[in-house]
Every structure is written in C-alpha cells, then in structure tokens.
Amino acid sequence: MIEEFKDIEGYDGIYQVGNLGNVKSLKCGKERLLKPWSSGVYLTVGLSKNGKIKRRKIHKLVAIAFLGHIPNGYKSVVNHKDNNPLNNKLDNLELTTNRVNCSVHKTDVGICWYKNNNKWLVRIWINNRAIHLGYFIDKQKALDKYQKALENIENYNGNNNEFRNILTL
Q: What is the Cα–Cα distance from 92 to 44, expressed in whole angstroms?
C-alpha cells in the first residue's frame, strides 16, 4: 500500500502525516521520515517552527488530517481499534466519546479505589459535571451502582440529589 501524506495543520509545507502513521519533514527541500519516540504509551514526534518545538502524538495527527478530528477535550477522542497505541494506521483509528473509549479499554469504568477510606469511589460524568454516587466496600456493588446510573442517565435533570434518589428506588 502506498502511503498518502497530508500537511499537518499549522505546519503546511513543513511537515506531513501519512495514513500509515508516519510523519515526514519537508525542511530544506528534503523529505525525511521523523523518528518517533514513546511518551508514556503513545508515539510522539517533535515539530519545530519559528525556533519552537512542540510535541505531537501521532495518532492525533493522523485523525486530524484524515478523519477531520477537532481536538476538544474529552468530547471527541481518538480510539485505537486494536488496543495497540503503537499502531497509528488510519484504518486502526476511529473517533469516539471518552466514555465509550474508556469502557472499551477498561473493565472498571466509573469506579476507582479511594485509598483515604479504603473504599471504591463511584461517580459518573454528565454534561461535564461529576456526580458522586457513593463509596462501596464491595467492588461489584460499586460497578452495579455505576451501571444503574448509566441506565438512568436520561432521567438526569441537573439536580444531583434527585438523580441519586432515582438510583435508590
């Protein structure tokens, strides 16, 4: 397969990203592939312009160029379909919500261990607001509470207490 390259937004004519996950420099009239490095789990490259270097994650560059991704916090995120963060090929990437992305890659969505009181903390995010659903000693009960909140999310009217009451019925 021949790799298709597109200019990187803000770096037109300087850098391009390809649909197979490569990034190349066009500086000094020479094309050369950049060598990525791992920043945590994701492959990253450094792009320089006007003497300033900015680090960019390759999967986001591919999604912006080929999927029309507009980074906007956690409303729209880039998911690696095969769960391999090193595979930045276009056919392995998709745009999704943060909630869906987390639920695909994590079995304990909505809960976390709160070491201050040795209990499971349960909360759900709705309209950029965290709604505390309680603390639980039993992990399964914590997961069940989060699942019940998900199933009743359409009943949320902005009042956290009313929403919590719905979940106890």
A: 17
